[in-house]
Amino acid sequence: MARVLTPQAEDFPRWYQDVIAKAELAENGPVRGSQVIRPTGWAIWERMVAEVDLRIKDAGAENASFPLLIPQSYLQREAEHVEGFAPELAVVTIGGGKELDEPAVIRPTSETVIGEFMAKWVQSYRDLPLLLNQWANVLRWEKRTRLFLRSSEFHWQEGHTAHATKDDARAYARRILHDVYEDFMVNVLAIPVVVGRKTVRERFAGATDTYTLEGLMRDGKALQMGTSHELGQNFAKAFDIGFLGGDGQQHHAWTTSWGVSTRMVGGLIMAHGDDNGLRVPPALAPVQAYVIVVKDGEGVAETAAQLHEELKAAGVRVKLDTRTDIPFGRRAVDAELRGYPVRIELGPRDLKEGNVTIARRVDGSKTPVAVGAVAKAVVEALEADQKSLHDAALAYREAHTADAATLAEAIEAAGDGFARLPWADCGVEGENEANAKGVSVRCL
Amino acid sequence: MARVLTPQAEDFPRWYQDVIAKAELAENGPVRGSQVIRPTGWAIWERMVAEVDLRIKDAGAENASFPLLIPQSYLQREAEHVEGFAPELAVVTIGGGKELDEPAVIRPTSETVIGEFMAKWVQSYRDLPLLLNQWANVLRWEKRTRLFLRSSEFHWQEGHTAHATKDDARAYARRILHDVYEDFMVNVLAIPVVVGRKTVRERFAGATDTYTLEGLMRDGKALQMGTSHELGQNFAKAFDIGFLGGDGQQHHAWTTSWGVSTRMVGGLIMAHGDDNGLRVPPALAPVQAYVIVVKDGEGVAETAAQLHEELKAAGVRVKLDTRTDIPFGRRAVDAELRGYPVRIELGPRDLKEGNVTIARRVDGSKTPVAVGAVAKAVVEALEADQKSLHDAALAYREAHTADAATLAEAIEAAGDGFARLPWADCGVEGENEANAKGVSVRCL
Ligand SMILES: [Zn+2]
Ligand SMILES: [Zn+2]
């Protein structure tokens, strides 16, 4: 097979760009830092949305929608928040042909505008907890951008909740962390994330505590896959989210916020992809089984259509490719690039013997299977490959996590994976030193 | 029952505002023309998205995502398009703390940026048709706004397709019109829309033909519920979407665009609502059955939980309300306001005789039903009420559609519904006259 992608070992960032282009996942948009997400890439995100949304609803939060534009003055009410976001704002100064009295910013995140409305909606302790989420686009002007990983506009969900007590807020921020994000990342994305807290330096602007989920990519680098923040009473004080307690007194609420974004698509690519392209975990894959006609011939089209229906009936997300005017080799390469977990190849020769070929993306195996046994074989392959992708990622992580005895050792080991070091042996001074050498303290 | 809403007959626009506030559907946002859609309103939109998205995928289009910001110069490439949208643009002039070299506009619609990418992706007739859709927020600066109906930022889907021939483009624009929009509006929204073409004056800026779906609201006024446009080769020429035909020659493609938006939520409210609030058609309703504990007592909580599970198992979207610390009357009024189709009321007295009460929102009936027969009764009620809402809307429309013999008669009749008049008897001059009297020609 001709080389389609730059090999990972040769140049990982280049491999990443190649996969995105060749699998037709995304392209740069015309305004700097913007991106066009093409159908193959967007279908992956839609599946992420569906799975995360289910879990958010199970955790009791309700979806809503807040405005894209926020009055500039809102951003200035919480001191750390304004400092954190001021350099990244896109500002609308003209609307309907006229200069605006007060400029509006495109939301970089929605704590402020949601805080304003929570203040109206929360009156008494009976209104708490208030558990809101929105799926939205946000914008943070970025100097250096990379598709999915760091783009000016990106898509995400942002959850925002208000609670009567600090304990309740903390418990909810952690519930989202574990029951929504960790569960989704481990069991659907097959990425064995490390879950922990961030250092004061790495916290979200305005948070009192930030929890993070870190995945290890196949270049030995960590990627932040999601975060959940305790905001203490910072936003509640800035936006006056107060309530009458059961004790008859006025109190400020305790708030949280939490989000995952299209950056997870980048994480998925880098955690599982190989030199032939994406490998999408079956539990996530928009196309789990790809029925592909190799060559026309007696009964081929009929059998393909029949297998397509059978697999659909078995609950498999399946796509049928009968484009025999395009060379089979090219279509097979495309299917590998896109990471479809299972390919069912039908040609007249095999079919004469009652067989088709099942090609599995994860281990690269090709096995002849009797037509009548395809549905069962596919379902089993999908389950097995979900597990083997996860186990391979876990083995890789374990092989790339070093228990360091000293800060120097940890910095050395972090060049190729995670290094585990007691915080007592690192501290803020150690963090300074590590940062200076391009190593960040990801997770406590 | 105390009066909660301004009656429709007294002041319809006021009734509309009251319902939106009291059912907690939406509120005005801080930047002029923006809106906050609250969980009850957003859940309705999510159900619309799910149903429309299914049908769009069945029609072969794929979802993608294009950028929020568009270079100002793009808007200027198609003459009618720039004229149509120039007065409504929100312009970003500052990004990342610096004045931008070229200002960017927030998309008012995405024909231009999608045209730019179609030009890259379409090379040969084999790449056609190219069938794309996106779910997105767009922004058109509006002077007078009304929640859901006319807001600066709104949510919608916009489909954009490119075809090899005019006939194919036309057929697809009509397929979307009928198989996606009309089917959804009639069979899910229970709104018997009138489907037709727009006059030249009312067309979309840049279209060669615009098809529309018009619903009749309970104040006798028509509401445009969706549109599908043939764009001819206007955008293909402006953005150079060309392809090598089977004939070996270069051709320009023929494009279409089509959309429905959160305005449909407004249409839903006004087509079915009554003086007690919303009436949501069961096929759409996010909550189809509302199990409500009237008063605690022996076995009440257990039976409520059991019915909740039974209904879920029967495929009914069900919500359980056990908040007996809030007066039952208030909770029942809220359920009416939100338009839940069926309410299952459980109290200790009825339950002693093995009964619960089924209250139906559409006809206002209340019937005692044996606990064991609830699931079946609910499923039947949902089906019957879907049909009766549709039939009532159709009867209303027919009672409010006059066959006019002259333009004067048509203008007169249009004060209270639709007037049907042969276009030959109206024409552009007649359209001028009707417009001057506040009557628009909706549909040919
Ligand atoms: Zn955990
Ligand atoms: Zn039709």
Name some characteristics of this structure:
alpha+beta; 7-stranded mixed beta sheet; globular; 444 residues; 21 strands; 14 helices; homodimer; binds zinc ion
Describe the secondary structure blueprint for this structure.
The structure is a homodimer of 444-residue chains.
Chain A: H1 12-22, E1 26-28, E2 35-37, H2 39-58, E3 62-63, E4 69-71, H3 72-75, H4 79-85, E5 90-95, E6 98-106, H5 111-121, E7 130-139, E8 153-163, H6 166-187, E9 194-197, E10 209-216, E11 222-230, H7 234-239, E12 242-244, E13 250-252, E14 254-261, H8 263-272, E15 289-293, H9 300-313, E16 318-321, H10 328-338, E17 342-346, H11 348-352, E18 355-360, E19 366-370, H12 374-399, E20 401-403, H13 407-413, E21 418-420, H14 427-436
Parallel strand pairs in A: 3-7, 15-16, 15-17, 20-21
Antiparallel strand pairs in A: 1-2, 4-6, 5-6, 7-8, 8-14, 9-10, 10-11, 11-14, 12-13, 17-18, 18-19
Helix pairs in contact in A: 2-6
The complex binds zinc ion (ZN) (2 copies).
One zinc ion (ZN) binds at residues 178, 182, 195 of chain A.
